[in-house]
Amino acid sequence: MIVWLNGTHGVGKTTTSALVRELIPGSRVLDAEKVGETLMDIAPSLPWTGNFQDWPPWRPLVVETARHVLDYTGGTLVMPMTVLVEPHWREISAGLAHHGIPVRHFVLHADQDTLRGRIDGDLVMGPSDFRLRYLEPYAEAARTWLHTAAEVVDTTRLTPAEAARRIAESVAVTP
């Protein structure tokens, strides 16, 4: 199974995914951003689109990487990755379904003021214009498709540990 943690940059996906991993036996974290970083290494030969997720190889490579890791290790993959473009999500989820891989899709959500505060106050990454640029695209995705395509965990007033516990408990009751 895959537990996909979606949501905008700065909402706490990376932190929460590590905590979810601790709560779900036999799980491990697979960060799909690493697939994008691999493509970025060959970027001079790829037409720049502004986001590696727009490169056609990224989405099937994410699917195949997850499939091969699960075939090798079994268990559960916790995948923290922002995907705000609906056709991209549909391609990934259809690819995983094609291989018979169940996906629990969660969106970590917080209100705009909370997100801005978290991004501006991030002690590890520091304030980030990149992350701030995704607040409106996230809000648009949330309004139009994302919140209906996933289980929403509102983290506005939750710690990452509380959010992780809610996700792990929800996954544990899956039939």
UniProtKB/TrEMBL annotation:
Keyword ATP-binding annotated: yes
The protein depicted here goes by the name: ATP-binding protein
Checking SUPFAM superfamilies in the record gives: P-loop containing nucleoside triphosphate hydrolases (SSF52540)
ATP-binding among the record's keywords?
Answer: yes
Report which superkingdom the organism of origin falls in: Bacteria
Q: GO terms for molecular function, please?
A: ATP binding
Key words, A-Z: ATP-binding, Nucleotide-binding
UniProt-listed Pfam families: AAA_33
Record's InterPro entries?
P-loop_NTPase
